[in-house]
Amino acid sequence: MQWSTIFKKELTEHWRSFKWIWVPIVFIMFAIMDPLTMYYFPIIMDSVGNVPEGATLDFPTPSVAEAMIMSFSQLGLLGVLIAVVVSMGLVSKEVKSGVYELVLSKPVSFTNYITAKYVAALMLIAFSLAVSLLVGWYYVNILFGTISLVQITVSILFFIVYFMMILGIVMLFNSFLKSQGLVAFLSIITVVILNVISSIYSHVITWSPTLISDYINMYFYSGQLETEIWFSTVAAVAITVMCLVIATITLKNRAID
Q: Which domain of life is it from (predicted)?
């Protein structure tokens, strides 16, 4: 009962702040931007002109896999920033305003408080990712070639797991910081550091959650899932759970203090 009440409250707040509208729209723009640009770029250049007489412009057309990867890459970069911005005030905002103390003055479990807010944010981001990537898949199928619905669905599910970890990290910083800006900054820095470490030592830490995007790219090229993507998924879930547990303990300690 407690959990569902907080969960519904979060979903309602997301709706009142129009996040259920603008977040999917922004994600869709990111997903279709590069494929559409690459497809229509030669046409744009021809219409603009300014090409020396007799000169020809030859722009290689991306393969269907490359076009789909563009959508995932944009969301893996800009989409992460939006996800962090959307979730940076989940707890820190309420702690700073005093709403947090008011809520927890009632018999509300710290675990319910953290997990309900987290799941509501995850639903928003997962919905936005799914819609945007399906729209991107639709345009890629029309303009570049065919990717099966099964392949895009599987890829989206793994991508959501990656964002699940991102939200877990944001929730962790939410639990002990009052500044939303600082929460966002440290979350982004943490994700960047994890990506850099994984890129440098990718041959060693093949289970790193930040390599999920790379394994998705390989899946589009080969049509076969790499075994390592399952280990990366388990690692992402483990890190998420760890972040939520630490966030809950942190809030409990703050309440005692």
A: Bacteria
